[in-house]
Amino acid sequence: MESGTRQGALSPCAACKLIRRRCAQDCVFAPYFPADEPQKFASVHKVFGASNVNKMLQELQEHQRSEAVSSMVYEANARFHDPVRGCVGAISSLQQQVESLQAQLALAQAEVEQMRMRLISPSSSSSHN
Asked: What pTM value is reported for the model?
């Protein structure tokens, strides 16, 4: 009777609703793709396909599934913004930003050091001018 409870009392999860199948009580998608978040599964489905997502979730232990779904959602959203590179593009962009900021920081630290040296020995900087 428990399997009838889910179908009768609760609406199907976002995944089952999108792929138009009956949502069973033991639905692998239901814990991660609730009915009130249809876009979450729609984007994942568009990139990975329902059967691939199902296979991936089935191959994982339950405690790993939530993190895997988060990764799939992140990648799917990244593919929306950059269809070719996906999250690799976002990571590359962030790495370039880090490198640029590190270079800026090194320049600023060098300037601070030069100013500090001028304050420590004002006579040596005036003799160079």
From this structure: 0.67
Q: CA 92 to CA 13: how far, in whole Å?
A: 35
Residue 40 belongs to domain spanning: 1-81
| 114 in the same domain as 69 | no
DSSP symbol at 33: S
Contact 13, 34 (CB under 8 A): yes
**Same structural domain for residues 92 and 76?**
no
**Total tally of structural domains belonging to the chain:** 2
Q: What are phi and psi of 87, to 5 degrees?
A: -70, -20
State whether 24 and 77 are in the same domain: yes
Q: What is the pLDDT of residues 66-122, one digit of tens each?
A: 999 999 999 999 999 999 999 999 899 999 999 999 999 999 999 999 999 999 886
CA distance 68 to 28: 13
pLDDT in tens, 26-37: 999 999 999 999
Q: How far apart are CA 10 and CA 4, in angstroms?
A: 10
Closest CA to 85 of 116, 36, 38, 47: 47
Could you tell me if 44 and 71 lie in one domain? yes
